Amino acid sequence: MTNALLIHNNNTPLKKMIDNQIVFNPTIDDLSENDIDGFISKTVMPQIKEREFQIIYIKDNLSVNYLDFYGLILAYHIRFELGAEKFIPIVILSEIDAYTINRVTPLGAILFTKNLFLTENNLNGIDKFKDLQSKAVSSDEYRQGFLNKIEIEPPKDYLSHHDISNEWAIYRWAEFLKIDDSEAINQNREKIASMLYFKYLLAKNPITIKKKNGIQFVPRPPENSGKILYIDDEWAKGWSDILINYFSKNSDIEFKTFEYEFKDSNQFSLRSAIKEYCENYSPDVVLLDLRLTQNDHTTTDIESLTGIKVTQLIKEINPAIQVVILSATSKSTILENLYTHGILGYIKKEHPTDVNISTKDNFDKLKGLIDRGFEKKYLKEVWVIQNEILKFNISNEIQLEIKSVFEILNSDMENRFNYAMFAIVKVIEIITNIYTEEKWENKQRYAYWKNLEIKISSNYSNKNDSTENKIRTILNEKLSLTDTTIHDNIGKIIKIRNNTIHPKNNSNQEKISKEDIVEWFKMLQTILKKINQ
Description:
Elements: E1 4-8, E2 21-23, H1 36-49, E3 55-59, H2 70-82, E4 90-94, H3 98-104, E5 116-120, H4 139-145, H5 161-177, H6 183-194, H7 196-204, E6 226-231, H8 239-247, E7 253-257, H9 267-281, E8 285-289, H10 306-317, E9 322-327, H11 332-337, E10 345-348, H12 359-375, H13 378-390, H14 396-409, H15 416-435, E11 436-441, E12 444-449, H16 467-477, H17 484-501, H18 514-532
């Protein structure tokens, strides 16, 4: 038979009839780690690909242990690697029937797929297969005739579902970014490429990196600037290289990995190390894995997860540091609970069994979250200013307004800049009431210095009793704050406040910026500090 390839372990009479043969005979070293997939992928498949044939005969058992069914495992590898483009007819040689094999091993499902045949392991009856030809089939035929009729389970001796998910996600993210210069990623890629389970996953969930119009999809990096700290116990397995590659596309992003030996570390020492690192680096956004220690993979107590404990720690350092959680979990109860701890959002790492997660969507979501986090980085300074002000000897009324500024800005409410501005102006009004009081004369209201029968000047406003006139006069005459920047800011914030309350023309209304808020809050800090001296 000139058009056939025979794969055996010297356990079939067909070896006398077919010259084109591969003897399946791994050494002890080949299977030192019980890695039959590795032997097939690295040793047998390259030999198959270099041969010319139209049909493959494979002995069902290729070892001394009949129940290993290495021949069936090999048939799966051939189907996954050659794919729909070369749908080779495969004939399994066996001493038992298909239904018995299927009862003994789930691998037997392949015997009931398209272009797969079973015959007795003898010279009789093989003539009926001699005219079979390999041919390409459509992707739909490949899926319907093969993929939808089988199911490959993850290896029983694999470390955990978390490890499988992690390796699967690393592979998909790295393929989207086309990273080929990372040792960790290449090791992961080699593992994915050889393991039968991952070949099955790739066949079921092919990586699509092209848009409908044929243009290749390239993940866009965040557009804003800022500092990112990445904390993950799997950082050295390829994730750090992936994120460095992705964020380096924007030169205004500073990215650092918390390079820590997580193995066997306890939560206390880990949190202490993270606290010190965060205080020194002061990141704007922290990318944080939910499970960082071994105990996290066995506990059922959500609140005890290290990622949640670290989130709480980060918020104690500065609640304006934005936290984005990375997680392989698909449990909505866990994911939604994360928002109660003030996270910005979460990214679900691709899991082999979750077909609803798209790598492209994950990149888009990551970009959006990081950009939002960078937009909020000014709040770190607002928080610091607030804490400095709260150290002053100020009234409860002022304290309430000062605290509300950060709370408002850190929320997602509409017009939060306006409300924060109103809170700042309210403090200014409280300050004016400390130094001045209003009196009526001849049906006119005037501002007097408190406890003095002296009118304050009207140098800064048309009205003696206006907030702008009173606070500017107080700055000059009571606090000796003559800095023009402070006076300009007073004029600006009062003007915007008045135009917001009584808009004359909305199209011309001046917008409040983050920079305005920080500048006004600093101004308030300067004024209150002077009052406390």
